[in-house]
Amino acid sequence: MRQAEIPLERGARVMRILHCIPGFARGGTERRLSYLAAEQARSGHEVHIAFMYNGPNRGRLSACGVALYQLRAAGNYDPRILFRLVQIISRASPDIVHTWLTQMDIFGGLAATVSGRPFVMSEPSSEQAYPTTWKNMVRGWIARRAGAIISNSLGGEAYWRRRMPRTLRYVIPNGLPFEEIERTLPCELSDLGIDSPGSLILNVGMFRHEKNLLNMVRALAFVVSDLPANVVLCGEGPVRPAIQWLAGELGIGRCLHFLGDSARVWSLMKRADVLVAVSKFEGRPNAVIEAIACGCPLVVSDIAAHREVVDEDCAYLVDPTDPSDIARGIRRALRFPWEAKGKAERAKARTAAWSVQAMANLHEKAYADVLARAG
Fold first, then answer.
1. Domain range spanning residue 10?
2. Is 0.85 topped by the overall pTM?
3. How many of the other CB atoms lie within 10 Å of CB of 197?
4. Could you give the CA distance from residue 363 to residue 357 in angstroms, rounded to a whole number?
5. Which residues contact 194 (CB under 8 A, 6 or more apart)?
6. Same domain, 232 and 365
7. What is the per-residue pLDDT across 226-266, written as a single tens digit (0 to 9) for each?
């Protein structure tokens, strides 16, 4: 494994790169690709993206010279996806194919293999995200044909190190658009339609079981019993009905405000008194690293993925299985704001190497290594 931590100088070679991703939803992987592809195009590379579904992360690609190919299919398993990808590879003649997320790891990896093109696979999560299912088994089989695995976390790297010790592997952290973040102004609670007094507690991410949101709600019931607070949740997902039901049962439904897939996340992070992220597992937690860049205090679960970017010196680390411990961390952040801000400032000082340009430099080096090995 090659631990990628220091930005590398750009090589002189111009590459033709084809990215394959299911769509441009508001997820962290989709955002990572949109920033990476835009930076690659600005650097002079010829960048192509094959995708199925539109979404908010497509917008930043519209004016940067990236060629977009939208695949029409009857569903996620339509074999015509493979046929169309082979056609795109034949037309675009990429030097390298880069696949993102399970569906396109499978279809994109197969298309690259049958077309005789080297490909790399992204790993956005860690081992707990991959139970033994037929899709994950097929993904693992196709990964053995990849020229490299590019993980965004040490947890992802550990997953593939055990399975593919001889394959080139890289850890490349997600890049942050620092200039965009710095230009963002904090929002006001009145802008959100919130007129009740109290601190602002923020959660950002998909409403899925691994995000541990029900334990967070149980913790919030302890917190708001003695501290006035408004809780803003940005995201959507299958667990939302359970969140709303539990909040109602605990009598805190009035405190929760659902903003859906809000485009104002950075404004919220700059206004929030604390961001709470108590996932059971993660890859590279986008909400956490963006909150760090925004200077927002953090209460996070004490898991390896969070320990990779923060420690007790710059965040409140809590037991994700214990609502009372989660509540302890939130209360501490709210009752001692000067302490919480000090932790946030120390966390922000660690972000210098997390730029989009550094991320693009490191991907370019990985691609060059794969192409050199392919001959």
1. 2-175+355-374
2. yes
3. 9
4. 10
5. 230, 232, 257
6. no
7. 999 999 999 999 999 999 999 999 999 999 999 987 778 99
